[in-house]
Every structure is written in C-alpha cells, then in structure tokens.
Amino acid sequence: MNTALASTFERDFAAALLADAGAPGPAAMAALQAQPGFAIYRNTVHKGCIDALEANFPSVLRLVGVDWFRAAAAQHLRAHPPTDACLLRYGEGFAQTLAALAGDDWPYLAGVAMLDALWTATHIAADAPVLPADALAALAPQALARTRLQPHPTAHWQHFAQWPIHSIWWANRSGDPGLLAALPALTWQGEGTLLLRVDDAVQAGPLDAAGCALLDACAQGLCLEDAATAVLQAHPQCDLAALLAQLLRAGAFRDSSHTLEASLMP
C-alpha cells in the first residue's frame, strides 16, 4: 500500500469533513463532497465535536447558555479541529477562543474554561502513591531543606490574579443552588484552585497565590529551601509551614520514597 497516498487521502478527507457546509474542500474530494450522504456524515462529525466540547466544558455551558456555547464551539472547531481520536481531550485552545469571543462581557469566561480543562486533566491523569501527611515529620531541618517534593500526577492548580474564578467555576460546575445564588454578592478579587483525584473522584478546593507558587516551585524541581525562598519573596506574609501542611493533608505530593531517603543521608 502506498502510505504517502493514504496519508494524503486521509488528510484531504478530514479537511473536507471539517469544512463548513457549502465550502469547497480539497480538489481531490470534490466528487466525494458531491455525494448526498457526505453532508450527513460531515454534519454528524461536526455535531460530535461540538457535543464533546459541551461535555468537556460544562461550567462554561451553564454560564453562557446552549445557543451561545454551540456557536462558539462551531467557530473553535473551524480553527482548531481535533487532533486526537479521544474527544475527552478535545478543547485545547478553547479558553483562548472564548476570550476572543466574550471580550469584556465575560472577562472571567476563559478562566472558567481553563478550570474545566484542568478538571479533565485531573480526571484522566496517571495514578501514583500519595505522600503521607506525616512523611516529613522525621526529617532533620537540613534534610528537610534539601528535600524535593514532586506534585502528584493528578494535581493541577491555577491562580487568577484578578477574578474570583474558583468561586464562579465551582458554583457552575457543581450546580449547587446556594453557591449559584451567592455569586452576585461575590467579592471581586483573585482566587486560585487546586484539583486532585482522591478515591477515583476529582476534588477541587480553593488555593491562594502562595500555595500555587509553592507547587510551581516544586514542579520546577526546586528543593524545599529554594522553593520556600521563592515563595516568601513573592508572598512575604505567607505562613509557609501551615501552607505545606495544608498541601500534604490534601495529598498534593507524590510519594517518592527514594527522595526522602536521599534527604536523610548525611
């Protein structure tokens, strides 16, 4: 089989499928596009992609309504067709599409979409042992200082400096009537979110800027001493010990016993 020819056909066929109704596709697909059944197939593909975006971004859907969402999703599909057969992952760049479409009307919409995407990333992340909350208790100060903590694979976090994205997102994601009713009185200030998968369920909670900064530093491979220095430079009022204890209790770190054993070595 001529693999180059097959690759060209597949690329042209996909381009024709994702083209708008009535829009010309690749010349090689003209005869195929003229077939009555092709329009039905194309419409089915378009609907499947838009349905996937609805399923992957339920908080955005609740905020803007079905009609606005599906129009935005169709525009995103034209510019960013799926690159993975698993549509559970579809939606990369959707936050940017929404930011351009929403403008000043919904300045927080892109942030809400980002958290919906992080929810999915947490849901499908690889599993790994969780570092016990008391794992650092036996370390001497010098050993603790050079310990490197790895965020758990299911851990995802994001801080938004301007908008209360966590509150807006979680009220719409959960659909909790009390949280939704409280949104008009929301204090308009920055918020962050930490997502983890615990017992096969995604859990989300607020996390301040210092907490997100600490996880950023750990993800970069910094030892705790250097991570603490970076966090305190940006957030001098932070209670670092309390913050670290909070993240340990939440299960935000991966259990890498060899790292702790190395820290205990003289």
Automatic annotation (TrEMBL):
<feature type="domain" description="Putative DNA-binding">
    <location>
        <begin position="9"/>
        <end position="96"/>
    </location>
</feature>
<keyword id="KW-0238">DNA-binding</keyword>
<protein>
    <submittedName>
        <fullName>DNA-binding domain-containing protein</fullName>
    </submittedName>
</protein>
<dbReference type="Pfam" id="PF09836">
    <property type="entry name" value="DUF2063"/>
</dbReference>
<dbReference type="InterPro" id="IPR018640">
    <property type="entry name" value="DUF2063"/>
</dbReference>
<dbReference type="GO" id="GO:0003677">
    <property type="term" value="F:DNA binding"/>
</dbReference>
